[in-house]
Design a protein that fits this description.
alpha+beta, 514 residues, 14-stranded antiparallel beta sheet
Amino acid sequence: MRILPLAIAGVGLALMGLVVQTCLMPLLHHKVAQGVVLKPKGETFEMWRAPSLPLYQRIYLFNLTNPTEAENGKQPNLTEIGPYVYRVYRTKENITFHDNATVSYRERKRLEFVSELSAGSEEDIISTINVPAMSMAMTMKRASFFTRLAASATLGLSYPETILSLSVSSLLWGYTDSLISTLTSLGQFPLGRFGLLAEHNDSLSGLYSIFTGEDDPSKAHSIDMWNGKRQVTYWKSLIANQMLGTVGQLWPPFLPAHRPLAFFNPDACRSLWMDFVGENVTDGITVYKYRFAPSLFTSPPPDSFYPPSQHDPLPTEASPSPSPSADEAYCPCLKSGTISLSKCRKGVPIYLSQPHFLDGDPSLQLSGLAPDRAQHGTEVLIHPLTGVPLSVNMKFQVNLLIESMSDFPVTKKFSKVLLPLLWFSEGGDVTGGFRDRIYTNLVLMPHVVSLAAWVALGLGVVLCLIAAALAARKRKNGKDHRKIALQSNGKDSEAEIPMKPKLRLEDETRHQSL
C-alpha cells in the first residue's frame, strides 16, 4: 500500500471536514440573513405581502342573562357564546420601498364567516348593553355641566334602551338606530352604523413604515413609523409612547433567548410584549415559546414592565429614560389585569384584558367567567433562526366600564362594573410545504452536512493515523533489515579468519610431497 497517497487523502478529508464544520453555520446565517430581507421578488416578500397560510379569528360574545336585575344594581350574570369563526385575509397595499431601507404600506384586513367551524349562526341573538348609549354617558362623567346637559338631552330625545337584543352579525358588523343616526350626523360614526368590530372588516390600516433589513438584517420587520410618527402621544412617559419591536407578524432573524419580544399594536394604542418562557421542539424544529406576562396587564406597572428595546439604541431615536411618572404611564388605571384605552378612544372607558380577566384582580370576576391559562392565555411559537412564527394564538378581551349616573337615565341603577363585551383569538399554524421547507433547509440539511463533515474529519484522521502507522512500520522494517544485514556481514568475516591457516598448511604439505 502506498503511504503518501493515503496520507494526502487523510489530510484532505480532515481539512475538508474541518472547513465545512467551521463554515457551515456562518454560511447558513448568511443565507438566512439574505432571505429575510424584504424586497420585490425576494424570498419572503409574497409571504409578507399576502400570507397564504390560513389565519382565523375566533370570537366569543357574552350574553347578559339577568338584564332586569343588572339594571337594578345586581351583579351581571354572563354566558359565553361562541366561537364564531372567521377566516382572516390580510394583504398589503400601497407598498413603497424607500432609500433608507424601509418600506411603507397599508394593510387591508377582510374577514369571512366560516359556518362549519362556528358554534352557531350569525343570526344568533345576543342580549347585551346598549354600547353607544352607555359609552356616551360614561364619557360625560368629567365633562362640564352644560356639556353633560346637552349629552343628556341628546340621549333623552333618542329614547335609547339600556339592554338590546341583537344578532351576532349586527352586534359585530353594525346596526343603526335613532341615537346612532344622530351621532353619525355629529361625525361620531363615519360608517353610519355601530358594530363592535365594524371598523376591522374590509378596512385599511394606518400607514406603516418598517425596516426591510437590507442594511442590517437584525432590523428586518422592525417598526420605523406609524402614520408618519415614531411615537404615540397618549401616555405619560416617553418610554410608554415608544413604538418598540415589530408589527407582530414577522420578527428579525437570530432571536436571542430569554429576552421579551415587543410589537406595536395600534388597536392597543401602544407597544406590547411577550416573555420568553422556554424552548419547544415541534416536528423536529426548535422554536421559542412566548406568552404575555402578568405584569403586562398590571396597573400600575412595576419597573420591570419596561423591556429592553430589540435594538439598543432604537433605530430612529435614542432610548429615553423613564419619566418620574412612569409608574402611572398607562393610567387611568382601574384594576390589575386591565389596560385602559380611553385616551385613544375619545374618552370612552374601554379596557383591554386577557380573556376572562386571566391574571387579573379577583374583584374583576363576574358570574359566568372562569379564567383558564390553557384556554385563555396567549401563546406564540417562533423559529428563532428566521423570526417566522410557526404558531400564533393572540387572545384579548374588550371590556366597557359602566356605572349609574343620575343625569343619564339610560344607565339605570347599574353598579360600577367592568363588563366584558367579547373576547377573541387570532392566529394560525404554519403547516405543509412552508414548515417542511424550514425543516428540510434549516434543520435536516445542515444536520446531514454537519454529520458528513464530522465523518470526513474522522475518516481523514483515521487515514492519517493508518498512514503514520504504515510509515512507522516501514521505517522499523528498514532498520531491522539493515541490522540483519550488518549481523550477516559480521559472521561472514569471522568465518574467513580460521580458514587461512588451514589453507596454508595444506599448501605446505602439497609442496613437501612434491
